[in-house]
Amino acid sequence: MHTIKELEKLVSEEIDREILRLNNTEPKNLYEPIGYTLSMGGKRLRPVMVLLACNLFTHDITKAIPAALAIEVFHNFTLLHDDIMDKADMRRNRQAVHKKYNENIAILSGDAMSIMAYNYLQKCETQNLGKMIGLFSQTALEVCEGQQFDMDFESRMNVSIPEYLNMIRLKTAVLLACSLKTGALAANASDQMADLLYVFGLDLGIAFQLQDDLLDVFADQEKFGKKIGGDIVSNKKTFLLLKALELSDDPTKKELLDWIAKKEFDVQEKIEAVRSIYTKLNIKEITQMCIEDFYQSAINVWTEIDLANETKAELLLLANMIMNRDH
Amino acid sequence: MHTIKELEKLVSEEIDREILRLNNTEPKNLYEPIGYTLSMGGKRLRPVMVLLACNLFTHDITKAIPAALAIEVFHNFTLLHDDIMDKADMRRNRQAVHKKYNENIAILSGDAMSIMAYNYLQKCETQNLGKMIGLFSQTALEVCEGQQFDMDFESRMNVSIPEYLNMIRLKTAVLLACSLKTGALAANASDQMADLLYVFGLDLGIAFQLQDDLLDVFADQEKFGKKIGGDIVSNKKTFLLLKALELSDDPTKKELLDWIAKKEFDVQEKIEAVRSIYTKLNIKEITQMCIEDFYQSAINVWTEIDLANETKAELLLLANMIMNRDH
């Protein structure tokens, strides 16, 4: 088995090669922003998951590299278009594409990326290609559905916890699940194996997003990288906020709703006020318990995967890495 | 053989069924705008071409219906995103999606449409599916490249005629070519047949776009539907303008460039002034000759297609229908 570090290095080299190729392809205004988007880096979690899942069944992980690129390019496409929609000017301390270039270039480059993902995927030489393309299309559409639900929630105050969990399943978890299943399919694993990995990825993905919500409020500012409290400032309907609205008594609920309704406020004051409501209501511990539930559910699936423990150990390491991150 | 009318009716029924399904799918804000986009109609030229090409080789054209839907949905996706980029508020006398809903919904619905196109395509049951998906991805990416070249040309004054022809090949012609080839592949036609139809569609597509440029300046206003002269007003680098810049003597060229540079002008005055320069330079006849060249090239390919004349007659009818339109 390759270690996660080795897979990260391999993914990073492959992406660098692609960026070089893209920077030399015409029209420049279409392909250079794509190279720029891919160069912004990030965790490369999804392509690593593709290769790791492939590696569970075969030593030859090169056959899954096109699929790993496909999913990373698709993921970066969603970030690119999300940044336009959210009017987010910065990503990972660099200008978003629609700021560095312009909005039209950002729309069109994103469109091209979503098509390029299929081009990469088609380079996989396996009898499972049809299944992989079908899974990818279904997943990609679900990610769009998740993004739309997320936008719809902005103007709704009555979002329920199950609705929220369904939204993050679509927006975040299915692509992690798809990454693992795709790697397994590229290695010609059985459908049953591929499906178990999918369910493992789904549970892990929901835990991953809940962890994200939690870090946005309670992370250590020095390690976190971006500004803490962004979700509170923008009234994002996260698990934490929805749970707080559910558990608060009438005066606390009024206080919370007042902060949400305020058009003018001191940012730091709002963050601290909402955080202290969360603390009073034990929201941190409740969220951690919910994360633990999904994580435990993933571990149960992991146990079911019919492979030697030493083979599947790296998968568990990855899960723990995701759960123990501080940014 | 089915007549073009019959194919149009079949396509229209299939699209109506899809619209109904989309209008009942959640999230509403994602799928309803897609149904709205598809309901705006238009010529349905591309799906008709898919079915017509399929019908050249088999009576059972139902097997090409998913591919016909795929290409129509993709085409409408490009119109939807183009309208955002061009800030065009109306399409076919109805509000563009980004006006009727909002820009974020228009971006995301378009993203979903481009993925849905693959979902439709995958429903085709043929051994050629891999080829069809590969062709579709290549074509879709070329359409993006064509759109980027088109946007790049806006800020360039030194666009050459070959550059322009390459741009319209990418932006318009390859999708018509792809439609015919896809229909042939769905019918399990030979690669050689499929390739001939592709080349036929490419020539026809370039003639089609040049015809579009011509109609925008010289159509009969009553039959044309939209306002004549739009390309002149917006200084679009069409074949007509590029040819006029190439052929004009220094004073005429200066007059043309002055009109292009003017920030404030009477719209009707500009249209008439530029049109009279075109008339003086015989641009209408020169464009018609160029259209005729591409049309003739398409007909030569048609002659080469090894099918009975009565079988392939409908293909010729379609070509003539496209060339003799007045809107």
Describe the structure concisely.
Chain A is mainly α and 327 residues long.
**For the largest beta sheet of chain A, what order do the strands appear in spatially?**
1-2
The CATH class of chain A turns out to be Mainly Alpha
Task: Name the CATH superfamily assignment of chain A.
Answer: Farnesyl Diphosphate Synthase
CATH topology of chain A: Farnesyl Diphosphate Synthase
Rg calc of chain A: 20 Å
Which class do the helix and strand fractions of chain A yield? mainly alpha
List the helices and strands and how they pair.
The structure is a homodimer of 327-residue chains.
Chain A: H1 4-22, H2 28-39, H3 45-55, H4 65-85, E1 90-91, E2 94-95, H5 97-100, H6 103-121, H7 129-154, H8 161-186, H9 191-218, H10 221-224, H11 230-233, H12 239-247, H13 250-261, H14 267-280, H15 283-304, H16 309-323
Antiparallel strand pairs in A: 1-2
Describe the model.
The structure is a homodimer of 327-residue chains. The radius of gyration of chain A is 20 Å and the shape is globular. The longest helix of chain A has 28 residues, at 191-218. Chain A has 327 residues and is mainly α. The first copy, chain A, contains 16 helices and 2 strands. In chain A, a hairpin with a 2-residue loop joins β1 (90-91) and β2 (94-95). The first copy, chain A, has helices at 4-22, 28-39, 45-55, 65-85, 97-100, 103-121, 129-154, 161-186, 191-218, 221-224, 230-233, 239-247, 250-261, 267-280, 283-304, 309-323, and strands at 90-91, 94-95. The mean pLDDT of chain A is 96. A two-stranded antiparallel sheet of chain A has the order 1-2. Chain A has a single domain, classed as Orthogonal Bundle (Farnesyl Diphosphate Synthase), CATH 1.10.600.10. Helix content of chain A is 75%, strand content 1%. The interface between A and B is medium-sized, with 35 and 35 residues.
